[in-house]
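Render this sequence as a predicted structure.
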Amino acid sequence: MAIFLILFFLSFFLLVIGLIKPIMVILWGEKRTRGRVLIYYGISAIVFFVLFGISSDYKERALKNMTPAQHLSEAQSILYSGKTIEERIKTIGSLKIAEARKHLDAIKPEDPEYADAQNMKEWASNLENIQMKRKKQEVAQPVMTEQEQADLKTKQDKRVKVIQGFINAGIFQKVEVADRWSEVWVMPAFYNMDYDSKATYTNIVWAYYIAGDPKREIVMLYDSKTGKHVGTYSKHGLDMK
């Protein structure tokens, strides 16, 4: 579909140039006239435009005829195409994300795939946010003094002990690192806590990892039993599903 649109614009561009100076776009034959420019590039532009319309209509019809499971599968193949999260961040562009969203938007609340579709939408939003931040000019980090490095190490050591305490207490099952994310697998005891306590506990994990790597901006929370994504922590706070 995209190739027809590109060819249409190319033909239209050559048509405009040819009407001004035919010899620039007709490189063969003795008659290099505006009439021949209209025949060659005018007809080409019309044909490619029609083909673009036909292919677009076909794709829209195919989209409507897909089942919710097929929509979910197509979106998954786009949003999880890379082997690692870092690879996905670098290779999945805005057009692909928009295409995936079309599939996810077609899944209705009454469909069994709806919950998974919402999780994928959240991942798509996180993906876009990270890509936008990386496009901005990175501000050079100031060099830390020896005292500042020592203070940071002390804080990090304390955070490690606190996080291990959460694990020993059965609040977290484990804390892991995955590419640019940090992952916390939460136990049933975590759900029994009030929101502020959940946010405070998760903030310690977030603070520990972002201090070591400023690009590690998100903590993903997963249920220890089901493995499902149950929440996200960022600089904006805790967002539980």
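Summary. The radius of gyration is 27 Å. The first strand starts at residue 172 and ends at 178.
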